[in-house]
Amino acid sequence: MTSRSQTLSAAGQDSLLRIRNLSVRFGTSPEATRALRNVSFDLGREKLGIVGESGSGKSTLGRAILKLLPPIAQISADRMQFDDMDLVNASERNMLAIRGSRISMIMQDPKYALDPTMRIGDQVGEAVALHLKLRGREKRRKVLELLESVEIRGVERVYDLYPHQVSGGMGQRIMIASTLAANPKVIIADEPTSALDVTVRRKLLILLDKLVSAQGIGLIFITHDLNLAQDFCDRLLIMYSGQVVESLKAAELRQARHPYTQGLLASLPRLDLDLPRLPVMMRDPAWAKDMETAR
Amino acid sequence: MIEIRDLELTFGTGRHLVRPLSDLAFSVGKGETYGIVGESGCGKSSLLRCIGGMEKGWTGAIEIAGQPVPRIRRGSECRVVQMVFQDPYGTLHPRHTIGMALSEPLRAQGMERSTSRIADALRAVGLNPAFAERYPHQLSGGQRQRVAIARALILKPDVVLLDEPTSALDVSVQAEILNLLADLREQLGLTYILVSHDLAVVAHMCGRIAVMQSGKVLEELSASDLRHGRATAEYTIELIESSQLKTAA
């Protein structure tokens, strides 16, 4: 696995997040599900895509970094470093200071992530009040500024709307606005565009790209969509049954070497290729075996 | 096989009148797969619901196999058109075994409900007949979607309406289901209408594709037009560009 160790620290000198041998298991018995096995990577000021199918552990990875997993989950890692902080041994109190303000998360579906009984402005205002300690008129000004930064038109009007009165794309912009309230260093986006139409999706990705590059944020982009990941991200980690099976530059996805990645690519219908039948992947049990660990 | 003329659907009256579908007309030949693409709210699902007999407030004409379809259908008139829905988790009753789910349409149509018939239906979609004893939560997403297809086909329909049949599935499972649908169409001489937001899936499965916007068919393309981006309407061009991504502007 030379490709793996090479690209492990492709971010080079200034890594925001450094993770070595992160494992998560649900339960303590020997048969407990090992949702993550020895995942190692570095995140710089870049867009890192985590790609995999359902059950591959990609969402668990995003949540494990923020320690947002249920109490039954056992998280272990040789190293989980964010800036100069050690996340492995961080207390819940320390995690509270990190969550949302230093490392933020964007969820898949704004319909569930926004409180249906709160006005948009008050919801974004909650994040502003918590992280920036602003009150009253200053808070309102900051909220309007945030809404403007995610290219929402007519911010004064949107401020007073309820979540059911806005579209899915607008909802996701609002989510991003409240994520940005505290100037986070790292954003974990878990399938942020899966619930959106393609034209809306493109606009949102362009916006996210702009914000991330402008503020030097490290983005972890969790998705099941290979085309999307290839197009949007700088670097990709391919996950299969809790392990990173391949790590590569997004531009080199088509030259992937792992048979699982190749199988995924082949089974995707393509606009530029007319095939009578789609190739179906044969899964090799060897892919699910434990791989060597990184140091 | 399917002939649609001047189809219009309205909900509500007066100030609250909404018109999800208007001036729709197209025809689908026997054995063809007709694709429909468009964004949320453009009327794709409403159109399928009209053809499938789940909406009553439409005007115009729908003909299936040369027969005009009445707005309110009797049981026996429902058999020829069957539907497969998007979410295999939501369309199977969690407390009914697969066998019960498959015998339900047979009971509704007053057809014979033998175990051998159910076993055949499961075999046709590549599942072991022993699955009849299982409950939906014991099945994977792909297996559930196979059951949903078996349930649609058990009544030997002429037309199957597919509403985003693979959007909830992983790509490797999507490939299996799309291959299965193509095989069944060939074996049984079925006619499909496939709704999807994924242009690549539609281009792979369909001969002709209608692009819908706000309840109307904006334009009709062939699969090769779609592959080569030969569209005339501005909206279609935007749709094709968006699905090819190129966000790195």
Draw up the topology in text.
The complex is a heterodimer of chains A (295) and B (249).
Chain A lengths: L1 H7 L8 E10 L6 E11 L3 E5 L6 H8 L7 E4 L2 E4 L2 E2 L5 H7 L4 E4 L3 H4 L6 H13 L3 H14 L5 H5 L8 H13 L5 E5 L7 H18 L2 E6 L2 H7 L2 E6 L2 E7 L9 H8 L29
Chain B lengths: L1 E10 L6 E11 L4 E5 L6 H9 L5 E7 L2 E2 L6 H4 L2 E4 L13 H11 L6 H10 L16 H13 L5 E5 L7 H18 L2 E5 L3 H7 L2 E6 L2 E7 H5 L6 H10 L6
Parallel strand pairs in B: 3-8, 3-9, 6-7, 7-8
Antiparallel strand pairs in B: 1-2, 1-4, 4-5, 9-10
Helix pairs in contact in B: 3-5, 5-6
Describe the structure.
The complex is a heterodimer of chains A (about 300) and B (about 250). By secondary structure, chain A is an alpha/beta fold. Chain A has two domains: about 180 residues, P-loop containing nucleotide triphosphate hydrolases (Rossmann fold, 3-Layer(aba) Sandwich), CATH 3.40.50.300; about 80 residues, no CATH class. In chain A, the strands form two sheets. In chain A, strands 7-8-9-3-10-11 form a six-stranded mixed sheet, sandwiched between helices. Chain A is globular, with a radius of gyration of 20 Å. Chain A starts with a helix and ends in a 29-residue tail after the last helix. By secondary structure, chain B is of the alpha/beta class. Chain B has a domain of about 70 residues. Chain B contains nine helices and ten strands. In chain B, α3 packs parallel to α5 and α5 runs parallel beside α6. The termini of chain B are far apart. The mean pLDDT of chain B is about 90. At the A-B interface, α9 and α10 of A face α6, α7, α8 and α9 of B.
